[in-house]
Structure prediction request, 336 residues.
Amino acid sequence: MPELPEVEVVRAGLAPVVAGSVVTGVTVLDERSLKRHRGPSVDFVDRLVGGTLDSAVRRGKFLWFPFEPAERHDHPLALVAHLGMSGQVLLRSSDHPADRLMRIRLDVDSPSLGRVRLAFVDQRIFGSMALDETVPTPDGRPAGYAGTHLLGSPEAAAEGEAGAAAAAAPSASAPAAPAWALRVPQQVAHIARDPLDPAFDESAVVTRLLARRTGVKRALLDQGLLSGVGNIYADESLWAARVHPEQPTEALSRARARLLLSEVRAVLLKALGEGGTSFDAQYVNVNGQSGYFSHSLAAYGQQGRPCPRCGTAIVREAFMNRSSHLCPRCQRVRTA
DNA sequence: CACACACCCTGTTTGC
DNA sequence: TGCAAACAGGGTGTGT
Prediction:
């Protein structure tokens, strides 16, 4: 369930459940789903059981749960989850029958729901979980999004879930961010902030984007430049900004680069508001439900259908073993 | 350093 | 109907 909106849907669904949850049992059904974990699965299991999950945090497509071990550890830890191409985290009752492609099972005792199960389900096993050490954020800002007012009113945020302080704008009356909010898992440290992060530095990203010598879509997909954008939302943002995916970054104007980033943000927020994009049962929230953004797609998967802006048929082109979808009339390579 | 590409996997859908 | 090929929203490591 890969791109930013889909991962955020999962994070938001898990946050109220995991906050303060004690891990009572861990079962690894497929070792390959621990490929990001350094050490054997017995180590993963032993260190998790008895510890407490503090919250659910997301940066781009990475999700993690700040973790307090049962026994003191030198560095604060985090349970990291990356969904890859086909991962899901499903919230199940403790006696729920095993999901078909479940790879890891976490049983927790949650303050809000009691004994529940987090099922990590992943068809292709490009995703994984890991218990990882954390490091302080270099800029001292919150490491990621832990749930506030991305959507809805500030009032809705105020009644909020545990850990709401993580992404809150600093103000005189705001409580200090908890320690976990300022630490990022080691394996996530190289991932850039995403465009919905309050600490996202738009002008710096524009400058770096224009300094690239590549096609603009490749740059948008580079998680070290900005995170959270994958193939769907890259195509949708490029369509909205009328930029060709192979547009050379060096021939992009600064104004159009800014427009593109603002369209990225708009597309991500709209998709989030519709619960993410689902084409099938593969991309679902923690309760197994699909989002609705697939009905709003203008370009992705729309080859042969009319461009919503000009009516020209959307085309699909090969791109890095995948596809790009674009309007050949609205989106042309610009040379200056 | 920045970039392009191969690779990691399995289940479902498509086409012959 | 059966089978093979094509396809899928990801990140990482390696080579240039």
Observations:
- Helices of chain A lie at 4-18, 41-48, 154-159, 202-211, 216-220, 231-241, 254-273.
- The first helix of chain A runs from residue 4 to 18.
